[in-house]
Amino acid sequence: MFGIAIHGVCGRVGARIAALAVEDPEVKLVAAVERSGHPSLGKDVGVVSGCGDTGIKITPSLDAQADVLIDFSSPESTVAIAEVCAKKKIALVVGTTGLNPRQYEKLQSVSQVIPCLVSPNMSVGVNILFNLVGQVARMVEKEFDIEIIETHHRFKKDAPSGTALRLAEKICEATGREMAKDVVYGRSGITGERPVDQIGMHAVRSGDVVGDHTVVFGSLGERIEITHKAHTRDTFVRGAIRAAKFIAKKSPGMYNMSDVLQIRS
């Protein structure tokens, strides 16, 4: 058994991580961290997450020693807690989306000190999807147009989703396209004929959708659609806890869910 700390514990995913970690016999919840000023500070994390009293109070800083910290917060908060983990030699699992290149570089720097697993989506199914779209894109080459459509709940702050961006990255890696040049984010006006290398990216925000991602490969006369739909946030939570178990005893370095699932491109 090893100790897990959660950063961003009052968020939708963070609260479920707390609840499922309490139920998991292989881990022990040792700390619950939330931003300064949050109204739930000082409360028992079990009360907030709906799993009963745990004896673990929600705090604005990481005071306990843990083997792994799971972070689902904001990009700025992720970088800050990563530095704390590096000082305390605590392995880090990051599920936060919307990280910019500078923030990701900071996590790469931290990974020289501690094991660090970063993934825009902890779902087992989505990580299989990442692998599949690269394979399909490589097979169809330039004959099929590629479009990515993602749908999330109205409260999501970043667009497109980190998962959609990773799908585009996997397609670019497989086909020699470039994210900066070939990905177009929505369309408007007289756009002209579709360029051969273009990847269309479309973000939908609607109601309480947990997360749907579809990659469309379309040619003249046929179409391939690969879709993943998350029915519950527990999908991401179970993946995050699985990632924490994987990384707890790893050497410093940067890891991802493909390492956890032993997916080889």
Automatic annotation (TrEMBL):
<feature type="binding site">
    <location>
        <begin position="95"/>
        <end position="97"/>
    </location>
    <ligand>
        <name>NAD(+)</name>
    </ligand>
</feature>
<keyword id="KW-0028">Amino-acid biosynthesis</keyword>
<comment type="function">
    <text>Catalyzes the conversion of 4-hydroxy-tetrahydrodipicolinate (HTPA) to tetrahydrodipicolinate.</text>
</comment>
<dbReference type="GO" id="GO:0051287">
    <property type="term" value="F:NAD binding"/>
</dbReference>
<comment type="pathway">
    <text>Amino-acid biosynthesis; L-lysine biosynthesis via DAP pathway; (S)-tetrahydrodipicolinate from L-aspartate: step 4/4.</text>
</comment>
<comment type="subunit">
    <text>Homotetramer.</text>
</comment>
<keyword id="KW-0560">Oxidoreductase</keyword>
<dbReference type="GO" id="GO:0016726">
    <property type="term" value="F:oxidoreductase activity, acting on CH or CH2 groups, NAD or NADP as acceptor"/>
</dbReference>
<dbReference type="InterPro" id="IPR022664">
    <property type="entry name" value="DapB_N_CS"/>
</dbReference>
<dbReference type="Pfam" id="PF05173">
    <property type="entry name" value="DapB_C"/>
</dbReference>
<feature type="domain" description="Dihydrodipicolinate reductase N-terminal">
    <location>
        <begin position="4"/>
        <end position="122"/>
    </location>
</feature>
<keyword id="KW-0457">Lysine biosynthesis</keyword>
<dbReference type="InterPro" id="IPR022663">
    <property type="entry name" value="DapB_C"/>
</dbReference>
<keyword id="KW-0521">NADP</keyword>
<dbReference type="GO" id="GO:0005829">
    <property type="term" value="C:cytosol"/>
</dbReference>
<dbReference type="InterPro" id="IPR023940">
    <property type="entry name" value="DHDPR_bac"/>
</dbReference>
<dbReference type="GO" id="GO:0009089">
    <property type="term" value="P:lysine biosynthetic process via diaminopimelate"/>
</dbReference>
<dbReference type="Pfam" id="PF01113">
    <property type="entry name" value="DapB_N"/>
</dbReference>
<feature type="binding site">
    <location>
        <position position="35"/>
    </location>
    <ligand>
        <name>NADP(+)</name>
    </ligand>
</feature>
<keyword id="KW-0963">Cytoplasm</keyword>
<dbReference type="GO" id="GO:0019877">
    <property type="term" value="P:diaminopimelate biosynthetic process"/>
</dbReference>
<protein>
    <recommendedName>
        <fullName>4-hydroxy-tetrahydrodipicolinate reductase</fullName>
        <ecNumber>1.17.1.8</ecNumber>
    </recommendedName>
</protein>
<dbReference type="InterPro" id="IPR036291">
    <property type="entry name" value="NAD(P)-bd_dom_sf"/>
</dbReference>
<feature type="domain" description="Dihydrodipicolinate reductase C-terminal">
    <location>
        <begin position="125"/>
        <end position="261"/>
    </location>
</feature>
<keyword id="KW-0520">NAD</keyword>
<feature type="binding site">
    <location>
        <begin position="119"/>
        <end position="122"/>
    </location>
    <ligand>
        <name>NAD(+)</name>
    </ligand>
</feature>
<feature type="binding site">
    <location>
        <begin position="8"/>
        <end position="13"/>
    </location>
    <ligand>
        <name>NAD(+)</name>
    </ligand>
</feature>
<feature type="binding site">
    <location>
        <begin position="162"/>
        <end position="163"/>
    </location>
    <ligand>
        <name>(S)-2,3,4,5-tetrahydrodipicolinate</name>
    </ligand>
</feature>
<feature type="binding site">
    <location>
        <position position="153"/>
    </location>
    <ligand>
        <name>(S)-2,3,4,5-tetrahydrodipicolinate</name>
    </ligand>
</feature>
<dbReference type="GO" id="GO:0008839">
    <property type="term" value="F:4-hydroxy-tetrahydrodipicolinate reductase"/>
</dbReference>
<dbReference type="GO" id="GO:0050661">
    <property type="term" value="F:NADP binding"/>
</dbReference>
<keyword id="KW-0220">Diaminopimelate biosynthesis</keyword>
<feature type="active site" description="Proton donor">
    <location>
        <position position="156"/>
    </location>
</feature>
<comment type="similarity">
    <text>Belongs to the DapB family.</text>
</comment>
<feature type="active site" description="Proton donor/acceptor">
    <location>
        <position position="152"/>
    </location>
</feature>
<dbReference type="InterPro" id="IPR000846">
    <property type="entry name" value="DapB_N"/>
</dbReference>
<feature type="binding site">
    <location>
        <position position="34"/>
    </location>
    <ligand>
        <name>NAD(+)</name>
    </ligand>
</feature>
